[in-house]
Structure formats: structure tokens, C-alpha cells
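request received
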Amino acid sequence: MTTAGEVTAFLRELVDAGLLLDCGVPGVFGRGPLFEDIVERFDAYVTRVGAPDAPKRVRFPPVLNRQAFERSGYMKNMPQLAGTIHSFEGAQKDHQELMQELEGGADWSHRQRITDVVLTPAACYPLYPTQKGELPAEGRLFDLLSYCFRHEPSEDPARMQSFRMREYVRLGAAEDVRSWRSRWLDRAQEMTRAAGLDAHIALANDPFFGRTGRMLAANQRDQELKYELVVPIHPGGEPTAIMSFNYHQDLFGGLYGISLQGSAAHTSCVGFGLERIALALLKKHGLKPEQWPKSVYDLLWP
Amino acid sequence: MTTAGEVTAFLRELVDAGLLLDCGVPGVFGRGPLFEDIVERFDAYVTRVGAPDAPKRVRFPPVLNRQAFERSGYMKNMPQLAGTIHSFEGAQKDHQELMQELEGGADWSHRQRITDVVLTPAACYPLYPTQKGELPAEGRLFDLLSYCFRHEPSEDPARMQSFRMREYVRLGAAEDVRSWRSRWLDRAQEMTRAAGLDAHIALANDPFFGRTGRMLAANQRDQELKYELVVPIHPGGEPTAIMSFNYHQDLFGGLYGISLQGSAAHTSCVGFGLERIALALLKKHGLKPEQWPKSVYDLLWP
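response:
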């Protein structure tokens, strides 16, 4: 079977078993009771592993201040993945015309105006603007979770348009931030070993756009700014990243005025792709958790 | 103090206490640890009250199939509140022009194209299309929770643009659906009484758009299709709806091909505005749950 065939077969299996619900758009799915339970159980496991660091738990909605987003560089680096939010602000007559277009199957999108918010592309983006100012000497540590959006319609259930990312974000001095990321690279490998997944760490780069993007990607790799923990969800194809470990140097510190002893603070984030982790577990151990290896089951249903 | 002044003062109090985080856009806030805890505690209380009915727990992402959304009538009834999602699909040259516009402070939104998804306006919208076909005689009952979007930028923390709605949705025969809604009207009043809130049930209507909207609203009230449980969060102003109880007759059954013994099924939903409930509790009992009336504290932290 081709990889594409395998991907489609796995998706069909998940939908038939009620783990995912088809919403009629590639990469958009409802989550059945068991799928949601696996996501929440792994999320709770992440909480247990991260608890000794006493992170501050903050939650943002899935939308982000457009001005802050524009400042982030995302539209420069990955414009193809972003989602802006548009609304109707017209009067009665415009509305009548809109409805004629909609009912006649014509394009009505030209009546929508861009709003002050965009969809959150990664769970940590809304955090940085709220941290403007001087950090305490020891820096800060946050625990985040958000639905994120990436416009990449795909038949691969491991490439959803709307998915949850759990994150820890460290802000502080360069050496503190880097050693924190190293500790999570170790922890993450222990976590996936305990979960019975064949994962390994790989140097990685963001999916930068276009020709100049290739240079950005090479630079990111040279400086080892991004690692991923990857798992072979689809045996014939590329391995899938289920966690990522990003060191931003002083990029966000500089962009959003977050300082430490007068200089731009350094930041790093560790992200867990919760839907992808659930899919990796289901692919490796089968669709019935009560038949998973006992140590894996006990890890998530302690 | 004017009502507008009270609203602003309450918001400032919440931000100063770290309950909400300012994101720089009206109606978009981060949730601090305590605010999130109150939301989750009330959500768990809803789960306990609803558990005897054995609902099926399904979760959808905060985005919805645009085709299904267009069919729903939302753009006809409440176009001003909807959010459509647009993405960049251009090539290298378009991207260079976009970046020139963005960096020069010009409008770059004309480069975005409408995608196949919109933001979810109410937690139950994604469910109906998945229920196409014949229902079992006893109907079905679902438990949903989703971030919802409404484009109504406001300084009132009780009118967020992005907020969570917990819902139960009943599909079935008209009489089953109606008696189910009646039972929740009773339960909801018991719940708010136990939570120490001065709530009461009110006949209501959706915020329909424009001139024809006034007729739709009157019709909805005449037929008692919508009730709300309202609380005076802002003493001088209109009471705020924290729960709603909607009977759709066979509207969604007809639109999405959900049938019962050959006819369009009836549907009803009961929605809990989780952020509004947290705000109502904080306004009534103060910003420190450990100082709330003991019975209220014990109800949520059992």
C-alpha cells in the first residue's frame, strides 16, 4: 500500500471507530469520547512531569491581537499557514446583496472586513505581549494550552487545521533558558519511552515560505534553534513531529519589550501536539486502550 | 457611578488581580490561574448535574465547515457577529507586495482569500451536520464544549469576542425535546440558587440583524423558543444571560437531514456561558473564593 493509501486507511479506521468525526473539510474533525479522553490523559501526564518546576498556568482563547501578530514576523515567515478573521460590518442594503450572493452560490467574501484578531498559530504567541517590562532575575515560567490554527488542508489526520498545543514557555537569561530546554529534551524522551513510542530527537526547522525561507531554515538549523521529537505514525512516510523545543534567542524579548537587567530577555518554548500524540499512541498500540501494554495504560490512567 | 464606569472599574479590578490578562483588543483576554480554575470547577459541576442523563461527550475545534455554516442561516440572521477565516494563497511576488504593505502600515487584507472554515458561533453548530440520517426512536443526547466567536468588541468583560460555551444538545421527537428543555430550566435555577446567584428565567430572543430581524425576534418570543437565565452582573445595566435554553423545532433537523421516523427531527440545546458564570460568581461573592459563602465554595471545590 502507498503511504497516501495508508494515511487514508488510518483516517477511515479512526472515523469508523468513532474516535474522530468527519466535518466535511480536510483536517477538521470532531473528537469522540475516547479520543478526547486520551488527549486529556496525556495532557494530565505532561502536567505531572512539569509540576516540580511550578509553572504559572494561564490560558488564552484561540484568537490573537492582530497588531501583536503582525509584529511577530509570522506573515513574513509562514504567511501560507496563518488565518485572519473577517467580519461583516455593512448595513441593511449590503446585507441584502450579501444574501443574494450567498444564496446564488456567488462569492460573498468581498463583503467581509478584516478584524483586529487573527487565529492563534502557536499557543505561546498571545503570551509575549503580556510580558512587556522587566522580568525578575530568575525569569518566568508559564504553562499554556490553546487550540491553534494552520491553513494546510490535508487528508492526514496528523496534520489538522485546528489542533491543541500544550506548551511550557521559559523567559529569562540565555543560559537559564537554554538549560531549561535541554532538561525538557531529556524529559520528553523519557516520557515517550514510558508511553511505548519509537520516538527520537531530530534537528528541525519551521516551514518557512518561499525562496528566502530556505535561507531562514538553514540558519535555524545551523544555530540549533529548533528540535523536534518525531514518531513514525505513517511507516512509509516522513516521521511526524509530536513535540518541539524552540529557542528564540532574544527575538520575542526584543519585539515585545521584555527585558532582563536592561537587555532583551531570551525565551524558549516546549510544545506538545496533543492530537498528534493521541494518534501516535493509537497507531502504535491499537484503537482499544484496555488492550495497550499494561505499563502504558497505567501511565495514562493512573 | 455610571454603568459604563462600573463596567470599566470591574474589568480593571479583574486585570489588577491577575484574573484576566489584557490582550490589547476589546473582548479578548487571557485567563489567569484562578479564573481558569473557577471556569473548570463550574464546568465540572455542570457535568455532575448532567451525568444521570448519560450524554455522549464530543468535542469540536473552534472552527466550522463554511458550507455547513452557510446552510445554517447564521449569515441571514446574525451576520454582524460571524467571523470568517481567510488565508494567503499567493506566490513569492504577492508575498513581497504583502510585506511591503504590512511594513508600510497599508491595508494588506485584500491579499487574503476566504477559506473553507469559519469560527464556531455556538458550540452546537458543528454537531448537526454529523447527525445526518435516521435517529434511534429515543433520539440522542450530546455533551459539547467549545470556544465560540462573536464579533462584538466591547469593554464589558461579560461580552467577550472569544469565550467558552458548554452545551447539552437533545435531538429527537418534539415532545421529548421540549420536556428535556423544561427539566433543564428547573435544574439551572437550582444550580444558580446553590451557587448563591440572584438569577431568574427570562423569555429572550437572538440578536437578529436589521429590520427583518425585529420580526424574527418577535416570532421567536411568541413561540417561546428561547429562554435565558439572567443575572445582574452590572447593577445599573441590563441583566446578563449566563445560560440559554433554545428550542429549534425541526429547523436543524430539516437543514441537515436529521430524521426521526421519516420526518425532520426536533432539536434543543442548553448552553452555559462559562466565562460569564465565572464573572457573575466573582462579582457577587468577591475575588477570593476562599472568602465565598461556605456552601458555594464547597459546591465548586467539593
